Amino acid sequence: MSKKNQTLGEFIIENQQAFPYSSGELSRLINSIRLAAKVVNHEVNKAGLVDITGAVGDTNIQGEEQQKLDVYANQKFIQTLTNREIVCGIASEENDEYITIQGHNKDHKNKYVVLMDPLDGSSNIDVNVSVGTIFSVYRRVTPIGTPVTMEDFLQPGNLQVAAGYIIYGTSTMLVYTTGHGVNGFTLNPAIGTYYLSHPNMKFSEDGNIYSVNEGNYAQFPRGVKDYIKYCQAEEDDRPYTSRYIGSLVSDIHRNMIKGGIYIYPGSSKYPDGKLRLLYECNPMAFIAEQAGGKASNGFKRIMDIKPTELHERVPFFCGSKNMVEKAEECMRNAKEK
Ligand code: AHG
Ligand code: MN
Ligand code: MN
């Protein structure tokens, strides 16, 4: 059983033994993510010191300006995941196309694909606010030893075998699930070791924080406006307060610890919202559900959506179960009107 102060290394070994048929590859994959996260953490911590911040000049497929650290984190995660014989393909928010790690080679036994947002909340770097990395892992569906295809990446979230995030905050934490609850590990930077600091993380059923970019209020669908008004109403001394960092990882992390809902809805300008189903919403949904919370597009479970393209976006409602259900009720009622 997990013990507080256990190191991530010890935790991985102990939990691998709990699955007698596991070949240890998933453990090695998590291990390589923890390594890349340390390297990226080191660089993120230096962001204010060296001239590494600022846009690199490129725009990614979504037409957004890339920050230098986005590119750096992307490279580090790709390198680390490629150099081990576990992963056969990677899709990243920063790459237009997926990356094939093994071609036609029957000796390659690599069976996992990784989808990631290497640096989330990147617009916060220049102002010294927490950023993160989000990852999602699936078993490939095409035969081992052949090149990966789009089919391997366009799997619904309910087939994820692992997902997690790293938060580069006041402390750096790795939080992940392999479908057996959610555990959080804090990095001791002096010795480069992660310790189990948050075993068995849970979203409380009810929460009092709602997190949404209210600057877009005028463009929100009726249901989201109604939910915000519900939270703000004086009736029954409603307990709600608003917190929004603008960094999904940080907003979800805080809400999981304190209880709350995160909403990035569709809008009149952007009907599918901003967040990406494969790199952001599915992994966060897996974590939320494993922590007793819920994740929805306002009407249905995020993890039941069958993706149709790599960089697909989706409205996102995620957090404490009762809060998400109340928001869904507002969405339903507004639709029926
Ligand atoms: P990224 O830095 O990977 O592009 O993600 C930014 C995302 C997410 O982290 C955050 O919740 C959201 O964008 C904030 O968007 P707004 O600034 O529109 O509120
Ligand atoms: Mn992001
Ligand atoms: Mn990003």
From TrEMBL:
Origin: domain of life: Bacteria
Class of enzymatic activity (EC top level): hydrolase
Keywords from the named record: Hydrolase
Keyword Hydrolase: yes
Enzyme Commission code(s) on record: 3.1.3.11
Protein name: Fructose-1,6-bisphosphatase class 1
Organism lineage: Bacteria, Pseudomonadati, Bacteroidota, Flavobacteriia, Flavobacteriales
